[in-house]
Amino acid sequence: MGAVSESRTVVAGAVIVNARLLLAQRAHPAELAGRWELPGGKVEPGEQDTTALVRELREELAIDVVVGDPVGADVDLGGGLVLRAYRVNVVSGTPAPLEHSALRWVDAAELHTIDLVAADRQWIPDLVALL
Ligand SMILES: Nc1nc2c([nH]c(=O)n2[C@H]2C[C@H](O)[C@@H](COP(=O)(O)OP(=O)(O)OP(=O)(O)O)O2)c(=O)[nH]1
């Protein structure tokens, strides 16, 4: 009941190691392909954000993470989607681009110049503060 009016959360993870942030290059859809994002995906109905983010990063990157604090503010993507980022710590595995075109580690300077997915640009100051 009421499903059409409820928003769906997209969770995204900020993996930071040695003052570099892990970005993933989208392979699809066409309008986002080639642009860089924080890896993650949609929270399933009834699923916790943290559970969803652990699941998504296992599926997309083959890593196990512990989810930490939120990063920045939620971003309204339109179409009933709300985007939310969390800091995550890798507990096992090495990130591999299982569902993305490529992965890249960026420092604060590179974060300003890379072609981020538009919604993620709002988090640049928050992410730079963590780098
Ligand atoms: N994962 C992720 N998605 C983002 C980011 N920024 C942003 O606008 N998006 C958008 C793109 C998509 O419209 C939506 C997430 O879709 P997705 O394709 O990653 O989700 P998913 O893995 O659950 O895939 P699916 O159910 O659609 O097949 O959020 C981001 O930083 N990370």
From TrEMBL:
Nudix hydrolase domain span: 6-129
GO aspect biological process, one term: DNA replication
Cofactor: Mg(2+)
GO MF, one annotated term: 8-oxo-GDP phosphatase activity
Catalytic activity entry: 8-oxo-dGTP + H2O = 8-oxo-dGMP + diphosphate + H(+)
Keyword Magnesium: yes
Lineage: superkingdom: Bacteria
Enzyme's top EC category: hydrolase
Listed EC numbers: 3.6.1.55
Entry keywords, A to Z: DNA damage, DNA repair, DNA replication, Hydrolase, Magnesium, Metal-binding, Mutator protein
Keyword Transcription: no
Transmembrane regions listed in the UniProt entry: none
One Pfam family, short name: NUDIX
Family that this chain belongs to: Belongs to the Nudix hydrolase family.
Protein name in UniProt: 8-oxo-dGTP diphosphatase
Species, as recorded: Rhodococcoides trifolii
